[in-house]
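*** Query protein ***
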Amino acid sequence: MSIVSTQTDIIVVDSTTTLLSLLDDLISLAVDPPSLYLDLEGVKLGRHGSISIISLYILSRKKIYLIDIHRLGKTAFSTTNSSATSLKTILESPTIPKVIFDIRNDSDALFSHYQISVDGIKDLQLMELATRKGSKDFVAGLAKCIGKESPVSTTAKAEWQRTKEGAGRLYDPKKGGRYEIFNDRPMRSEIVQYCARDVALLPGLYNIYNAKLRLPGQMFWQVQVREATKDRIKLSQSPGYDGQAKTKVCGPWDEESIDRAIDAWNDDVMFDAQNNEDGNLDDYEDDDGYESDNITARDCIGWEEDMVKNGEYF
């Protein structure tokens, strides 16, 4: 079974006409589960580089749009349709959920180059970390998450890996490639498939992690993910943010900070109970104790490849 269904269209957006068609497709979308799944590609993606392509998978429409930022520039974000919808308003809306894997460098690039402050973000990397049984010291890369938890078949995972390796030979200088391949026009077929297949796998991961976060007693971790996502966005917009920092492999929670957060959470629960604000403590079970999964920095498979893609180093 192919990663991208034969019923799913892959559309390159490189003109006002195709952009307006995309904007019309963004109206009245379902929000639970989310309809929008996002990924950015570029040359040294961040404030010191550029955005080349935004891959946007509209799950309910069965369409993957590859938005040509290299060609459209600011027009991609400022153009509005008859409903006053623009890509900027979608990305900044707190009520329209957008699912992405690690928002940090993408947010940095969007804010630095186009003054877009993203909101409504569901960060899969943080969702995985929050639902992981074991050490939360280090975040996992996309490749590790796909290999371990994506619901697609082994054949589909192998197809994704071949596509990733083929694209890597085009953009990775260590493999004879060049980062600027993302700016070549027309887009290479290998790049088109790479972008489409990356974003096509995000809904499956979201469903897995979201189901875990909605289990009884997991409201604590829902809040932690939401707050950590906001912190990531705020950090990415700060003057001192370094998108190539080696500390990016570190998670936002260690055992000490988790213990402090749980204590504060339990204090709040008791306060609410004593003041009759809820009366139902089912959603407030604490999250003490977790089995070791022996995750280390080098177990964050996919981090090195993901960083090299954007001109970064592990």
